[in-house]
Predict the 3D structure of the following.
Amino acid sequence: MAEVKAIFWDNDGLLLDSEAAFFELTREVFAAFGIELTREYWGREYLGNAKRTRQVARELGMDDELVEEAIGIRDRRFYDVLQRPLPLRPRVRETLDALSGRIPQGVVTGSPRDKIELMHRLNGLQGYFAVTVTGDDVLETKPHPEPYLSAMAKLGVRPEECLAVEDSERGLASAHAAGIACIVVPNPLTRIQRFEKAYAIEEDVSGVLKHLRS
């Protein structure tokens, strides 16, 4: 790999275990409304194919008049969960520490800025990132390339100078469309997906380090 001048990280499911918490809450609420939601379906359709919760609920047979109520309950419960630190994914902090001061790092995520800032503050991650692009900052979210194009513009770097790290097919597609090599670190929910366009697939985020020039 050529010299890397910027590393862009996805957030949910890659740096923080927020995707697992979000799925479990969604599954619990769906069950209360008589809908079975499996890990495989969520991993493939929501996390991989970028379907929204509303679409997933309707495809699984939830009545239209109940969808907004169910999502509202789930979102309120998730907000309560976010008031406490979420677990970091394996070897995240030591990897960020190893790169800190060496290569500029950024976060590229579809989550709202207020949730990202809250998660990072509670987990002590604020100081690592030179730029954060959230779903609030773009017109098109992943798998569209706009989030990565925006992050590159903010740091003044070209695609060939960057490395993206993602956990999902949707994120990989976004980075690839922006011309950025992407390493994928699947989590338990996204391992079902296919990552044919990945530069590499690693077991945890520390695997990124071996792809960088010393």
